[in-house]
Amino acid sequence: MGTSGAADIDGELGSALAALGVREPVTPENLAAWQERDAVGRPRPTARELRAGGRFEVDELRVPGASGAPDVTLVSARPAGATGPLPLLYYMHGGGMITGNAWSVLPRLLREWALPLGLAVVSVEYRLAPRTRYPGQVEDCYAGLRWVAEHAAGIGVDADRVVIGGKSAGGGLAAALALLTRDRGGPAPIGQLLLCPMLDDRDDTFSGRQMAGVDTWDRTSNATAWQALLGDRYGAADVPPYAAPARASDLSGLPPAYIDVGSAETFRDEGVAYANAIWQAGGRAELHVWPGAFHGFDTFAPEAALSRDAREARTRWLRRVLAPSGPGDGPARQAPGAAGRGTTRQAAGAA
Predict the structure, then answer these.
(1) Which of 189, 312, 348, 350 has the fewest other C-beta atoms within 10 Å?
(2) pLDDT at residue 341 above 90?
(3) Which residue from 69, 339, 350, 330 is spatially nearest to 179, judged by alpha carbons?
(4) What's the pTM value of the predicted model, to 2 decimals?
(5) Cβ-contact 135, 58 below 8 angstroms
């Protein structure tokens, strides 16, 4: 990948990418078949399997959805025997808004973060596009977050130490959820963990064009996913920020963000731009651009040096943001009376 204009891919990661072979992009024509293959092939561990022989306590919860919407399934897990209210990672899975499930991500989250950090994890089974279009996904996530905040004592979590997070589409949903809960005056997370987040429906960044046909998730697949999510609104000038957070004109008053992308991935430029916009709004963001990394590199090559570095950096950030802080040292929190500030903020249900 050393030719002019092409992104240089890390050698260790490049070997993993080559081993994947040619990946057919998602198109409107093959979307249904792609979803069927994912539903069959993606792991979906049971609650018993997730308990890992008694290492974790795991419950599947059905909680009320938004008005007129079906209930939302939450998978709640915590280290077995942990006492006292635990800090919580409220997590949205990846899959381009069109694939994935709440169960498949949990073994890794529990192994890498729940045990070493003493975290509880709640993973959200939001509805997928195109069967459900925007705002169904973010409303499912918001309804689940509200329920968790209201029932924190009952499920043994600390409502004042909640980090929202996700990867790829889940990272985009976490960013959208941070905007939505800010504007509705809802639960106030103390951090947002945005891993290679899917933020911009316009699909016209330099990195998107640069990695076309190369990245594991390229601009063809990305356009297909956004079209599935937005339907007739795809390409419109007024797509709401709760659908595509890169559309937001006001990023003030948000919880501190951790954003990471690869330098050789489709989402590089929109992730960098989002961090920059948070800084310009006076907010706090920690940005990592992993050199030579493609989309989802740490999933496809978990033992690569860059993958290990990325996991360690994310863990350090989580440890810092969850640490008890003195007066004036903690993250900025949304004031209840600040909901709805500005003319560009619009509740997703009314969009």
Answers:
(1) 350
(2) no
(3) 339
(4) 0.91
(5) no
